[in-house]
C-alpha cells in the first residue's frame, strides 16, 4: 500500500468536517493538523478529529507530516493560502471558487506548476454518478445535437445564514448566491455543455432584507456547441427544492434531480439504461434547505484521487485549470447584471462588477 499521505486543513468552519471526514474515509490518507485564525474553532475541530493545532499558517506549512493542504477559508482568502502552500512544496485541494478573479486563478495554477505540486478543486458535484453518466452521454453523442442545458437551483437560506459571519454578507468576499451556492451547478453546466460564449444575467435580492448581495440570479447562456440554456439560482425560495440539471438534444433527454436521474430517455435505448435510471441515492440531501445539509462522499472521491495521484504523473480528477471556465461564467453573470447588457467571451476580470 502507498505510504500514508498527511493532510492539513486551513479553516475550521462549516466545510472543514466534510474534508476531515473525507480524509478519515480515505485509504492511505490521514488528518494531521488544522489552522484557523479562530483558535477555539481549530481546537474544537482538532478534538473531534484528533489533530494538531498550529498557531500560524506558517506552522502548518512547516510540518513535514503534511503533504496536502486543504483550503477551507472564505473565498477571498484562498489565493494567499494556496500560494504559500505551493511555495512550501505542499499539494493543494482548494474549496470553490478557486479564487475571486481569473488573474488570481492563473497565478495559483502557475505557482503550483512551478512548485511541481498537484492542485485540485472541490467542485465535488461533478463526481456524482448521475453527472458522470450524463457526461458520458454528451461525449459519446447519445443526445445527438445538444440543444438545451439548464440548471434550476431553487433553494432557501435563512437571513441568519448571511448575518452569522462577516464574509457571508459581503460580495467582495465571495458571497451571494451566484458564486457561493451557484458555483457548483454552473460548474456542472460548464462541464457538460461548455464552454459558454455569451450570456445575459439579472440579479436581485428577493428575500434577505438588509443584505447587500443577490439571493436570486437568472441567466440565459449560449454555448460554443450551439446549445442554449437557463441558469436559475436562488436562496430566497422557501423551503428549497432539489437542484435540477437538464440536458435535451435531438436524440435524447437526461435530467438529474438532487443526485438521482429523473429522466433518461434516448432514441437508441441500451441495456445499461435501466441501471443508469437507478443511479444515486434519493435519500441523500443535496443542500436545498440548509448549508450543511449534504453528505461528504463526493469530497471523499476528490481526496482519494489526490492520494492516488501523489507520486505519479497523473493529473488530479478536478484540476483547477478545468474549473477556470466556470469562474468565467460567474464573472460574466456579475458583469452582465452590473452593466445591464449581455457579455460575450473572452471574459476579463472586472472588479467593479463584484
Ligand atoms: N464544496 C462545498 O460544497 C462547499 C460548501 C460550503 C462551503 N464551501 C466553501 O468552503 C469555504 C469555507 O466556507 P465555510 O462555509 O466553511 O466558511 P466558514 O465561515 O464556516 O468557515 C471559514 C473558517 O475560516 C477561518 N478563517 C478565516 N480567515 C482565515 C485565515 N486567514 N486563515 C485561517 N483560517 C481563516 C474562519 O475563522 C472560519 O472558521 C468557502 O470557500 C466556501 O465556498 C464549499
Could you characterize the architecture of this molecule?
With 354 residues, the protein is an alpha/beta fold. It folds into two domains: 5-122 and 296-318, NAD(P)-binding Rossmann-like Domain (Rossmann fold); 126-287 and 325-344, Dihydrodipicolinate Reductase, domain 2. The chain is built from eleven helices and 14 strands. The strands form two sheets. It has an eight-stranded mixed sheet. A six-stranded parallel sheet has the order 3-2-1-4-5-6, with helices on both faces. Helix 4 runs parallel beside helix 5, helix 5 packs antiparallel against helix 11 (320-339) and helix 8 (183-193) packs across helix 11 (320-339). The protein is globular, with a radius of gyration of 20 Å. Bound molecules: nicotinamide-adenine-dinucleotide. Residues 10-15, 35-38, 41, 72-75, 77, 95-96, 122, 124, 165, 180 line the site of nicotinamide-adenine-dinucleotide.
H/E order of the elements? EHEHEHEHEHEHEHHEEEEEEHHHE
| Through-space gap between termini | 47 Å
The number of distinct helices, counting runs of at least 4 residues, comes to 11
Q: Give the total of domains.
A: 2
Specify the CATH homologous superfamily of the largest domain: Dihydrodipicolinate Reductase, domain 2
Question: Outline, from the CA principal axes?
Answer: globular
Q: How would a textbook summarize the main sheet?
A: 8 strands, mixed
Structural class: alpha/beta
**Helical content band:** 25-40%
